């Protein structure tokens, strides 16, 4: 039975590889790709998703979503990592693929309402679209089978010492999602920083020698350059595809039930995912937080995903 998912993302190099991994996968029914502003402004993240789908010949609907956070005035993007286009590196053919009519939030609501409650939401960007759907149509919340999101950290942040980018961009939206009552698997920096895409990984994927492998290499060579400049990593952490990998093979992750609360009040720690690792609050866990990853298995899943394009 294929796992039905909606991928909500802000392409973004690692989002692009999450699309690649889910796109032509016999185990996944990718119902739609919904786009949010994040790594770049919305026009750019929409364009990037369309380019990836066109290049990989993925016949999957792409919907434009929210272009700003729910509450915060200041928009935060990540051009220092993803470049001016949000997907610097690859050169695409002229874009002919078009986005769907209608807003991403409406697509999420309609698709969940019409479902049997068997859809997993996979957000890999700021959670604005997901939270707006929950607030606009509370009746859909019980119909969400699970939320497997890339975001947060119970250790070190990346956009501030406290906070991870996806949560920081729209912490209020993250608060809505983590208080929704639905099963949340939080794939945070704590594990994604263990899957660093070193040059030997790029060479391994290049040897597959298909369109997906060449896109993987073009994306990761750029991503590695900026990750080295900003964080000093010798390989870029492949954040977003870990969500898809964990859906394909749950054994790739070790998770721990924790009560997670989003800091939407403070200045210094705004956007912090306060994960109660030792249950000191005594509060009921609302999330399964990833605490470890099988790195070899993850790269096997990535390699298999690229080979799906042979
Ligand atoms: O902090 C990493 C996350 O922020 C990833 O999803 C990356 O694509 C950016 O959106
Ligand atoms: Ca992302």
State the distance separating the first and last CA atoms.
23 Å
CATH architecture: Alpha-Beta Complex
Mind telling me the CATH class?
Alpha Beta
**Mind telling me the CATH superfamily name?**
Ribonucleoside hydrolase-like
Report the strand count: 12
Instruction: Determine the strand fraction and express it as a percent band.
Output: 15-25%
Helix content: 25-40%
Overall pLDDT confidence: 98
In the sheet with the most strands, the strands line up as 3-2-1-4-5-6-12-9
What's the shape? globular
For the sheet with most strands, the description reads: 8 strands, mixed
- The number of helices is 12
Q: Oligomeric status of the shown chains?
A: single chain
**H and E string:** EHEHEHHEHEHHEHEHHEHEEEEH
Contiguous uncertain segments of 5+ residues: none
Number of domains: 1
* Bound ligand species: alpha-D-ribofuranose, calcium ion
Which terms would index this structure?
single chain; 310 residues; alpha/beta; Inosine-uridine Nucleoside N-ribohydrolase, Chain A; eight-stranded mixed β-sheet; two-stranded antiparallel sheet; 12 strands; 37% helix; 18% strand; globular; binds alpha-D-ribofuranose; binds calcium ion
How would you summarize what this structure contains?
The protein has one domain (3-307): Ribonucleoside hydrolase-like (Inosine-uridine Nucleoside N-ribohydrolase, Chain A, Alpha-Beta Complex), CATH 3.90.245. Helix content is 37%, strand content 18%.
């Amino acid at each position: 039975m294929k796992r039905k998912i909606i991928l909500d993302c802000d392409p973004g190099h690692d989002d692009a590889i999450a699309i690649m991994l889910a796109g032509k996968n016999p185990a996944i029914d990718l119902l739609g790709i919904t786009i949010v502003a994040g790594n770049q402004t919305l026009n750019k993240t929409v364009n990037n998703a369309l380019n990836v789908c066109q290049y990989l010949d993925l016949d999957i609907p792409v919907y434009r979503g929210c272009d700003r956070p729910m509450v915060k005035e200041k928009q935060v993007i990540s051009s220092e990592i993803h470049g001016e286009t949000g997907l610097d590196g690859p050169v695409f053919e002229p874009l002919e693929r078009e986005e769907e009519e209608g807003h991403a939030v409406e697509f999420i609501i309609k698709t969940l309402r019409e479902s049997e409650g068997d859809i997993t939401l996979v957000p890999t960007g700021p959670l604005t679209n997901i939270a707006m759907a929950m607030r606009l149509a509370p009746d859909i919340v019980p119909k969400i089978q699970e939320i497997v999101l890339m975001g947060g950290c119970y250790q070190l942040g990346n956009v501030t010492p406290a906070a991870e980018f996806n949560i920081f961009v729209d912490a209020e939206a993250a608060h809505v999602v983590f208080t929704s009552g639905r099963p949340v698997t939080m794939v945070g920096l704590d594990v994604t920083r263990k899957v660093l895409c070193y040059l030997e990984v790029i060479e391994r994927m290049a040897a597959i020698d298909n369109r997906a492998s060449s896109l993987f290499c073009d994306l990761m060579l750029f991503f590695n350059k900026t990750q080295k400049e900003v964080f000093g990593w010798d390989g870029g952490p492949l954040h977003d595809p870990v969500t898809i990998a964990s859906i394909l093979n749950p054994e790739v992750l070790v998770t721990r039930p924790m009560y997670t609360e989003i800091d939407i009040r403070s200045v210094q720690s705004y956007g912090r995912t306060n994960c109660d690792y030792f249950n000191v609050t005594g509060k009921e866990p609302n999330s399964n937080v990833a605490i470890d990853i099988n790195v070899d298995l993850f790269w096997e899943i990535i390699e298999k995903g690229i080979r799906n394009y042979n």
